[in-house]
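Dear colleagues,

As part of the handover before I leave the project, I'm documenting each prediction I ran so the next person doesn't have to rerun anything. This entry is a single chain, and its sequence is reproduced below.
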Amino acid sequence: MNLKLLTAATLALASCRTALPAAPEPIAVPPGAIWQTQPSEAFNGKRDDIHFATAAIGFYGTGKGDLFRTDDGGSTWAKVWSKPGTFIRALGFVDSDNGFLGNVGDYYPGVTDTNPLYRTRDGGRSWSPVAINGAIVEGICAIDIVKSEAIYQGRLRQRVIVHAGGRVGGPAKLLRSLDGGETWRFIDLSDRAGMILDVKFLDADTGFVFAATDKDNANSNALILKTRDGGRTWREVYRSSRKRELIWKASFATNRVGYTTVQSYDPERAQQLVAKTLDGGETWREVPLTLDAKARQFGIGFATPDIGWVGTAAGGFETRDGGQNWAKVPLAPAANKIRVRAADGTPKIVAIGTQVQALEAAR
């Protein structure tokens, strides 16, 4: 190859090279820390998502279309936006001003809003539908945001990569943005999965959808798909052997150690399971959680490879040895989302379901 052409090709490759996100510092979980319930407006049922932008500024939403904000770490909450007919299923914030809101869509009774994704630029006070270039996306159940650094023309710049996927009841569709939500690419996974319940990317290229094989729970196996090329191709890395199952939520403590909840709708099945990976999601093994048919699983969050929590319809469970043993903890029933960091990377362990809670040192 001509040397000038080779040099140009090398520079072009370098200009778009993406650096992997730095490994996060371990989160220190104080011995004796307990789940404390924070004051919140009464709500009939579970609320689905909570996300802090910083240690102080956070947001949660409800199925009635109400969005609440705190500026004092959760001690007080104020309603800052409301849109009846919208079901706030997912939240994702880049910083205290910029964020995204996912609406589950009119699959649910009482939901009339057909806009799947909204964006705020003023800290949640106003929201606008996201333009998705004519793609039909019925609803959103999960939003994931990754901040990475890319070398462009010899300069290191930060990129904000956003994924939004859904939905419960199907179909399985994913939105992807490489520029913080300014433009979007549509990825249709309906030929590979029946529904998407969660999404997680480790960097710009490597990611997962946590899903079900069929949109009908009666025919569904729990399913995890992985991509290593930014969503262009996907392969199956886990499928449960039982029907009436799906993957509900997932949490990665590091880029290699991750956990998911394997949610069962079999009324005769008492054994509840989580799935665990030690190799960056290439392989997953099932880990027993509890023997209780009433403990249908919802959210999951791990602060370290060993310490984590699972929310179920029967309350919460904690492990401190990577899932070998689990103990009941005062996590409110149906904790649907458990987060361990704010958007700025600050440790912030919170959960939302029938209550809004935070893990705090014993008083």
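Residues 1-20 have pLDDT under 50 and may be disordered. The chain is about 5% helix and 45% strand.

All the best with the project,
I.
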